[in-house]
Amino acid sequence: MATGHEAAANAPTAGEYIVHHLAHLNSTGHAQKSIIDFSVINLDTLVFSVLMGVLGLFVMWRVARSVTSGVPGRMQAAVEILLEMVNNQAKGIVHSEQSRKFVAPLALTVFVWIFLMNSMDFLPVDLLPNLWQAIQGDHHAYLRVVPTADLNGTLGMSIGVLLVCLWYNVKIKGFGGWVHELFTAPFGSHPLLYPVNFLMQMIEFLAKTVSHGMRLFGNMYAGELVFMLIALMGAAYGGSTGLTGPLLWIGHVLAGTAWAIFHILIVALQAFIFMMLTLVYIGQAHESH
């Protein structure tokens, strides 16, 4: 049996703990140091994204099956409030009734899916990673459970929104009309301005897509990191002496509780912001310069 000193010596440092928890379970089987490598797939992001999507579909399906015209239950009432909120936002931004038949359900899907993925941050930091390590029998096994704290996931969603916007640009304005707009807006239709207009349009598409994904990623990544720091405060309790240990434990409980309550707002707000920007960008695709 290892002594206390040996256990302390073998325990990871705070930096090693955080670096390990920020590494993905990916197709290479080890921590990936390169930020951009299209040959690497973050399997944990894919799995938890799909699981949250399936969970969202299942919950909405169960609510739809149990809908009653009488007094609604709490779950039905909550879903009806959500549907009304999304529908009102879609009406105010996308003025085409035909387009809203697709856009409003898309916005609802975006909100519910991102809300559920964000909510994975409420699970104890070490719960699923430690369970995965036990299953694998490998103390160095990696697992991240918050898909929206992975830039690949959030940029993937924002690129999906970009593709929808490009589709509506062509559908509403026609391919020729959209190409004409690319070269004549925002500065006018003078031939000398064509290159400048086209460059500005490309910068706009790029900036909107990158900022759309980066905003969600940045907030969720920061929230995940704060939870890890709070967890380290609690872990330091066992190796402290005197009053330091109990004070660290009390601080861990208080900070964890306060941050979890505040994080509820962040989880819902980030899902709402991503949904609203999706509606705004699609609404802009319906407008002509």
Architecture overview:
With 289 residues, the protein is an all-alpha fold. It has one domain (12-285). The chain has helices at 4-10, 14-21, 43-65, 74-93, 97-119, 127-136, 151-184, 194-235, 244-285. The longest helix is centred in the last third of the chain and has 42 residues, at 194-235. Mean pLDDT is 88; it is low at 1-9.
Write the topology of this structure:
Layout: H1 4-10, H2 14-21, H3 43-65, H4 74-93, H5 97-119, H6 127-136, H7 151-184, H8 194-235, H9 244-285
Helix pairs in contact: 2-8, 3-5, 4-5, 5-9, 7-8, 7-9, 8-9
Amount of helix: over 70%
The tally of structural domains comes to 1
- Outline type: globular
**Helix and strand pattern:** HHHHHHHHH
What is the radius of gyration?
24 Å
Model regions low in confidence, pLDDT < 50 over at least 5 residues: 1-9
- Strand fraction: under 5%
- Class derived from helix and strand content: mainly alpha
Mean of the pLDDT scores? 88
Query: How many beta-strand segments?
Result: 0
What is the CA–CA distance across the termini? 74 Å
Give the biggest beta sheet. Answer: none
